[in-house]
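Review this fold:
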Amino acid sequence: METLLIVIFVVGYLAVVLEHNIHINKSAPALIIGILCWTVYILMTDKSASEVHHELHEYISEVASILFFLLGAMTIVELIDAHEGFDVITKRIKTNEKIKLLWIICLLTFFLSALLDNLTTTIVMISILRKLVKTRKNRLFFIGMVIIAANSGGAWSPIGDVTTTMLWIGGQISSHNIVFTLLLPSFVCLLVPLIISSFLIKGNFESPDGDQIDFRMSPVRFTKSHIIYVSKFEKRLVFCAGIGSLIFVPFFKSFTHLPPFMGMLFSLGCLWLLTEIMHKDKNDEVKDPISVIGVLKKVDVPSVLFFFGILIAISSLQATGILKNLAMMLDESIGNIYLIGLSLGVLSAIVDNVPLVAASMGMYDLKEFPLDHTLWEFIAYCAGTGGSALIVGSAAGVAAMGMERINFIWYLKNIAWLAMVGYFAGAGIYILQEILFS
C-alpha cells in the first residue's frame, strides 16, 4: 500500500510541477491524487471504514481552516483592487532612476508582502511596474527582484506566505515570535542581493507614454453602456480598511485564541458591510463589479482547489505513517535541524513549498518540537525564501512567469544566483541569532 501511495503521489506531483509543459492546470492532478490516495488507503488498510472516516474528518478540519483563511484573504485583496485602492501606492512613486526604483520597489514589496501575501503582492507590483517602466526588457530584472523581495517579506509574517500561515494555523509557530525571530534574517535575504544588484544596473528607464489624468472620480470598470466610478475617498477608505482588516487578524487570534480563519472571515464581514453601506445608493449595474459578490467571481478558486488536493494527498501519507518514516530517515542521515531546514528550502525551489511544509508538519511531533521551536522557525524561513532560487519554486515566481512570460533559463542565469546568495546569508543570520540569543 505504501509503495502504491508514493507512486500515485509522485506521478501526480510531476504533473503539478510540469503544469506549463503539459498544459494542464495543476489543480486537476492535485485533486485526483488527493482523492486517489485516500481511496487506496481505505481499500487496502487493515483499519475499519469508520476509523478511516474519523481520520479523514480530522484532516479535513485542518485543511478547511487553511482554505477558509485563504479565501477570506484573497477576497479582501480583490476588493481593494476592485476599488483601485493600490493607486494610493502607485501615484507616489516618481523616479526614472533604475537603482532608486529598484530599492523603492523591493522595500515596498518586502513590507507589503508581510501585510498581504507574497503572491498577491507580486501581482500588484508587476501591475505597478507596467505603469512605471515602458519596456519589458527593463522590467524583467525588476520583476526578478520582486520575487525575491516578496518571498523574503512573506516568510516572517504569519499571513505573508501560505507555508508560514500553515505553520501558524497548525500551532507550530506563534505570530509575534515569528515576526521577532525572522524579520532580520528575511531582510538580509533581500538586502544582500539588493546591494549586489545596485552594482549591476545603471542609468534611467523610460516610462510609458501618455499623460496621467487625475480625476476626482476615477473609472475602475467599463460596461457596454456605463463607466463605473469610485471616488478618491472611497479608494482610500477601502484601501485603509482592507489593509487594517488583514493586520487585525493576528491580534484577533492572540486575544480570542480562536483559529485565524475566524478572524479573517470576521474582517471580511466587516469590510463587506462597509462597502455595502458605501454603495447602497448606487444602481445594481454600477455596484455589482465593486461589491463583494462581484469580487468573489474573480477570486482564484483553482488555487484554492489545488491547496485542497495537495494537502489532502499529504494527509494520506501522514495517516499511513509514511511521513513518520521519512522523518526518521532524515534524522538518521542528516540529524542536524539546520541542515534539514536548508535541504527543505533548496528542495522547495524544485517543487512547491506547500507540500514540503505540510510533510514536515506531519513528520515531526509537537510534543518533541513544541510551539516556536527552532526547527519550525527555520523551516518557515527556508521554505518561504528557498523557492526564489527557481522561477517555478514559489507561487510568486509562477505568477510572474505567467504574467510576463519570463523564460526559465533567463531567470536561472540572472536571478537564481542572487536568490541563493541571499538565502544562505539570511540563514546564516538566523543561526547566528540562535547561537547568541537562544
